[in-house]
Structure formats: structure tokens, C-alpha cells
Amino acid sequence: MAEVKSTCCYCGVGCGVIIETAESNGKIEVTGVRGDPDHPANFGRLCSKGSTLHLTANPSLQMQARLGSPAIRKARGEDPVDISWPEAIQTVAQKFADIIQEHGSESVGIYVSGQLLTEDYYIFNKLMKGLIGSNNIDTNSRLCMSSAVAGYKQTLGMDAPPCCYEDIDSASTIFITGSNTAFAHPILYRRLEDARKNNPDLKVIVVDPRKTDTAKEADLYLQIQPGTDVALYHGMLYIMLWEKWINESYINSYTADFDALRDLVRDFTPKAVSQICGINEKDLFQAAQWFATSPATLSMYCQGLNQSASGTAKNAALVNLHLATGQIGKAGAGPFSLTGQPNAMGGREVGGLANLLSAHRDLANPEHRAEVANLWGVDSVPEKPGLSAIPMFEALRTEKLKAIWIVCTNPAQSMPDLNAVHEGLSKAEFVVVQEAYAHTATTLYADVLLPATTWAEKVGTVTNSERRISKVNPAIDPYASAKHDWQIALEIGLALEALLPGNRKEGTSTLFPYAGPEDIWNEHRESTAGRDLDITGLSYKILEERGPQQWPMPVGSDSGKKRLYEDGIFPTKDKKAHFIAAPYKATAESVDARYPFALNTGRLRDQWHGMSRTGTIGTLYGHSPEPCVELSPKDAGRMNLENGDLVHVTSRRGSEIFPIKVSDDIASSQAFIAMHWGSEFISGAAGKTPGRGVNGLTCNMIDPVSGQPELKHSAVKILPANLPWHLVAFGLFPKEEVFSVQNSLRSILPHFDSAQCVLFGREQDGGLIGVSFKAAHHDDPLEESESLAAQALKQVMQKFKLDEASGEPVMRYIDKRRGVVRLVRAQEKVLSAMLTGPIGSLASTAWLREYLESGLDAKALGRSLLMPVSKPPVEIKPKGKAICNCFNVSADTMKQCLSKMPAGTSPDDAMSSLQSETQCGTNCGSCKPEVKQIIVSFLKKVEVAA
């Protein structure tokens, strides 16, 4: 047994982890993970995603899910063929060199990721801007953080969150806007829960169009209309001015340009803002009062502000409130942007965006360009801004960009308006995909695949939301022949140097003189000298010996700086913060009679981004088991729809089919789909184009300042899908088979009008993982034996070992006249099943799945397992919705425990008793907000009944 300290690879909280390893068959393997109690970001806590990281590193899963060797496609559509690393490196370098020499340096681009380490990011930035001589490098952080960057720079002068996590402990009011913190940043939400417990007077305000778990626990919830954030903040400032709650001394001493903002907000009266935002004037007044008069107000915000065509304006308007009230530069106060990815901050630090340079330098500044050129040993850095994410893929579509190198990200799932993105990738002359996972939507377009290392294998640094740099350390050897991202970039960079005339100054032998990641990091450190993020006092050794450190930390400092602007001096020309008079603009895409619903996207509690990692763990589907579109009860009732009914969700860009979930959390005329569901998990051919998942619907209109797209709002229409034939298949498989089964099933998703394939079950309960496949079609495929759907149906039967060729013991019921088929494979227990036909004939699906998951004796029921009834022939205790994944505790189990408690039990006592009996919420705590809701709801019902 051995242990290695490292950092979680999911969100921007930057939690420290301890990776547990053991030797097996002569190899070191990851056996467990737990939170690092010494890490100041999490103090030993991990969320539901982080606490299952070790499961993503098990050898059998790696063999199925990972890219192991470099590979090349001789032609698009063909299977890739393994090649050697030298051949792969030379192929990529030669092809890039040929395209550059024929079409110029602007004809190629690199698209990187906030999940890269700082060292990876730095070398890719240098390769593109220094060696190739183009600024066509951008990052998926453009999709999540670029409006926060622009907002900070406009108002405060630099891209730096001025706060720290300790401010949560010190705040008197916390203003959460555009963030479902309970889901997106669970460990920070645990800290907020602790702060409320320690300070019962702490007020929490939540602003969100959707009534999230975060909103349900707020002291004041403002359910605004989508995209009206700027109007809300201007309306709050109007009240602050009227009530004289602003801090005139702070405004006069430390800020500029307030008069223009004062003039602008005169039109945002409480009545006007109430009508724009759809909230009560009383609630608007209360929010303004708590924000302005609190001893310390902390704002926490994320994609609800950023992912908008007005994202920069939203960020700046929120910062205006802090400047106007002096709620900045002191403990417990300030505008705190919560980073989406683990190293989006690190990418910004090295200039990994198309308009930035190393150490927060501006590309437009000739002095900054000269400083970087001198450091790198090149004649110059190009002045022209490069293509940011959305224009980059549009340039592929219009064939202005000939080649793209995609690193550690999945744009064929995560970009908006995916039909255009897929068209661009199809038209590209050359696509390189550098990736750890084999089966993302983007790998299908790769001419060359480069296998990269991932969590537990990498070494380097990341920077979290509070500017804290943490070390990432390897616990196991790289998988198969995978190489580190920086290493691949270095080798291709060296090969390119031999092929291109180059931009090197005389005496510079190479731009890549690095023996390892520490050499790269040291050069990055050198670039920060005298800058706002100066880390010249930091080293790998200090990070190892003294733990994670915040920047700035210049030479001579014992530690980094917790919070910024305590002296009221800002990094602007006049040393003052600047108010921005940002006008309110409605959402970029209008809702109208043709597209009457506002579609919102967001995160699930237990999944991460495109699910290339979390989507391999059955446990993590328990809380949200399948893709769906959430609608309000009013809208569902008006369309005569019930839970599970299929609907077409259609935007101006595409159409997808989803089952509906009726939810009180959704306002009327709005809809919600989780951002994670791409074509790897949900697809079909009922729309105008093959299914792309949720981002086949989303809007690619961008913020003119930040370049960030409006992923948070799209206008859609929702209509019932008339698909009379349905299929449900599910089964348990050994963990060494499950992912190959799932991947085979994924390949046939488009052959039905609507289909989805997800996992279920708990690997730690015995190694069997469930695979669930659902489909719907306009006709019975059995009657169309030559159709793609008919062939796909045969593959479903084969994969679940239900066909006659499998030789397995299968019970069969077939009614060809009605198109009904029921197949159950069972030995001592039910192992798999498939049911097809009209939706009414699938009534036994739920209990049969429960029977399979419960591992009950199949012999006791015999052929009654085929009965098309809604209730099982024997009593089965339903598990209900999984609430606590760590201990497999369902909502039904919780309610049963609560029913035993004596009358008059308080919510706190009920929580203690529930945790004592079931352990729910005692490990990662991600389920605690929902557990509290169940307790409160149950106790209310008991009180009413009494």
C-alpha cells in the first residue's frame, strides 16, 4: 500500500486528494481516493464525483475506455490503425508544416482545455504564438469563464478573483447569482452550510430562473426571467441610491466613472425592474438592503452570468454593486467568480486564450508582445488576435482554417450549434485529437489520435478559483503508451522546428529546451515577475513542502495573498476601479410564437462535462438516471403530457427527442436540459439531422467583448413525439465487459428515431454494472427486416445475450400482430431483459428492472416474469430515486426511517437520526440539500395530518 497527494481533476474548487495505491500482478494500481485533510480548499472533503475518481482508474475500465496507442485514419469513416509514436509525431508535424507553408500560419489552429495542467497550457501557447507565429489558440474556457475575465478586467483592471474561500466563513450576506453551487461546487457549498451553522444571522440570497437545490435553501430567492440579470443589478443600485445605502466615501476615493452609471440606472425603477425580471418589488428591495447594509457581502457566480451574449455586462453590473457599497477588499466581501474547470485559471495565467499573452499580458499592447518575444527568444509575437472558439470552428466550416489540433476536450459535444461544428470538423483538411478517452464524439473526426495521460498519471500544477496553485502528482504509470500532454507538444514542437523557417532569434537553438514539467513551470514563473500574478517566490519544492499557495507570491514572500485590493489600489492606469454603465439587453435569441419556450442548460449533481470519465461509473447515474427535458406542471398539463412521454425539442438549429420530467422547479414557458447529454448517450434520426444531444439545440451567438456563447438560453418549441413503437432493454454485465457493450450500443443510437444508452448499478457492490438502452421508432422494426432500425434491434438482442445464437436460457413472449416482444434471460437471477411494443405494453418495465437490480430469485416467478402488468407477482420493495450515492440510500428509504420518528421531531434531530441510521450525507455531503428538503416536506405532511 502507498499513498500520493494530488489534486482532483473536476471543478475549479481544486480539492486536494490522497490517491491510495497497491501492487497487483507486478503493477501499481489505484485502489481508492480520499480527501486531503491538509489541503486548504477542502480540508479532507470530496464531492460525489471526486470520491469515485478511483473507480475511473480501474484496469478493466481503462482497457475499454482509454486510448492506448497513437493511431491514424487512412480515410474518414474508417477505423483508426495503430502506429508508433515517432510516426505519429512526424505525421502531425509534417502535415502542419505543409499546410502552413501552402496557406500561411493563420490556416491552422489549436483548441485546448481548462483540464490541462499549467505546464501543458504554457507549451502549447508558446508553440502556437512563438513557433508557428499565429494567435489561433483558444480553449474551452472560452465557453465558461471568458466573460468573468472580461468583467474583472473592465472594472478592477485585471483578471483576478479578489476573494478567497475563507470569505465564505466571514460573510454576513452571500449573494449567489447564476450558480447552482450545491451541484456545481459542492465542497464550497459544504463550507456555506458550515458558515450558516456557525452564524445563524447569515443571509443567503439566490438569483436563478430555475428553483435549484441552492435556491431552495435560500433566505431570499429571486426567480428572475432568463437573461434579466443586468436589469436586476441596476434595479438594486437604484434602490441603494434612493435609500442612501451606497458608500460615497469609497466611491470618491477608489473608483471612477460612477456618474455615467448613476444616470443609466435612473430608468430602472422598482416597478420597471419588477416587470422585466418577473419578481416582487418587495423582494427586490430586500435584496438591495441586505446586499448594501450587510457588514460584509460576498457574491458567488458562475455560468448563469458568463454563458450569455451579454455575459461581460452581467459580470460588470454585479461588480458595480460591490464598488458602489464598498463591499470589496475586506474579509467576507467581494465579487467571487467560481471557476468551472480545474485549471481554467492556470490557462488564463499563461495566456492560453486567443487574445492574451503570458502572465495576463494583453496581445494589443506592443510592450507586452516585446516582453514575451524576448523571453521566448523569438523575433516577434503576432499582433493580430487569433480565432476564439466559436469563430475557430466556423472557420473550419468555411474552410478558411485547414487544420486543427484538439487537446483534452470534446467540442463535438460541448460547443453550441453542433450541426455547424460537426460540419466544420468534417470539412477540415486535417484533424488531430489528443485525448485520454477513446470514444468521445470528437475522436470520430480525428485523422490522427494521440493518447494522453490523465488523472493519477500526470505531474504539474493547477490553479483553483481562489488563485491557489496546487501540485498534481502521479500515483501510477501512464496507461499503455500514453504520453503527457506537455510531452506530446514538446516532441511535435521540436519536429516542427526542423520543418519551418521559424521565428527564432539568432542564438536561440530551440524554443523547447525542457527536460520536464518543472523546467516549463520555471519559465512560466519567470514570465510573471513584476506582474499582478507574480509567483517568483514560489517553486515546486515549496508546493511540496508547504502545500498549495495563492498568488501573488513574489520573491521574499512567506505566503501568497488571501484577498486583493485591501488598500483600495487597483491595477489600472489611474489606480482606481471603474464603474461600467452597461445597458440592459434582452436575451440574444427571442422567444416568440414559433419558439415559445426558453431552454436553460446546467449541471447534474454527479456528472462532469461530456461524461467521458464520470459516464463510465454506474453509481453516478443513480441520482439522475437518464436524459430528460424538465417542464413545469402547468406546461405539461396544457400539452397533456406525463413523466416519461417523449417530445420533440426543436430550436432554430436542430431538433432532439427527450422524455419529459415534470418539475415544480421550472417556471412556466421554460425548460431545462442538463448540459452533459451528448450524442455519446442520446441520439436518433427523427430530426432534420442526426441527433447531437443538447448542444444540437443551443445558441452560438457570442458576447462581443468576451467571445463567450449564449449557452444558457435558447428559444425552443416542444411538441409531443408520435412514436408508437418503444423498446426498453437492460442487463447486468461484468465490469470488464460493460463499457464495450455500452460503446457498441452507442453506435446504433442514430438508427432509431430516438434512443439513449446509460449505465446503472454500483460497481463496489460486486463488479456487475447495468446497461440500459431505450429507443422509440415510428414503426415496428421487426416488420422492416432490411431497415437500419431492424438491424439495430438485432444488435440490441445480441449485446444483451437475448438472441437464439447466444445459447443463453431466455424466456420469450412474442405477439407479432401487436408488435410486442418480451425476452428475459435468467439463471438463478434475472440477468437481462428486453421489452418492445406500444408504450402501454411496457408496464412491467419498472418492477422487472427492480427485480434484476435486487438480485431476487428468478425461479420463484418463472414465466410470470413475462407478464405485462404494472405490479410484480410478488412484493418488491422499490428503491425509489437514489439520493445518497455514497451509501446507496433512496428517497423511499429515508421516508421509511422518518416515519418511525416521534411526533414533534425537529428538522435538525430528524437529520441526525437519519444520518445515524442510513449514513446519508455523512461522506461527501452532496446529497444534504436534498435530504433536508425531504425532511422538511415529510414533517410538514405529518403536521398537516395531525
UniProtKB/TrEMBL annotation:
Sample GO molecular function, one term: nitrate reductase (NADH) activity
PROSITE patterns: 4FE4S_MOW_BIS_MGD, MOLYBDOPTERIN_PROK_1, MOLYBDOPTERIN_PROK_2
UniProt domain 4Fe-4S Mo/W bis-MGD-type: residue ranges: 1-61
Ribonucleoprotein in keyword set: no
Entry EC number(s): 1.7.1.1
Keyword presence, Iron-sulfur: yes
Cofactor(s) recorded in Swiss-Prot or TrEMBL: [4Fe-4S] cluster; Mo-bis(molybdopterin guanine dinucleotide)
Family: Belongs to the prokaryotic molybdopterin-containing oxidoreductase family. NasA/NapA/NarB subfamily.
Protein name: Assimilatory nitrate reductase (NADH) alpha subunit apoprotein
Protein source organism: Polynucleobacter asymbioticus (strain DSM 18221 / CIP 109841 / QLW-P1DMWA-1)
Origin organism lineage: Bacteria, Pseudomonadati, Pseudomonadota, Betaproteobacteria, Burkholderiales
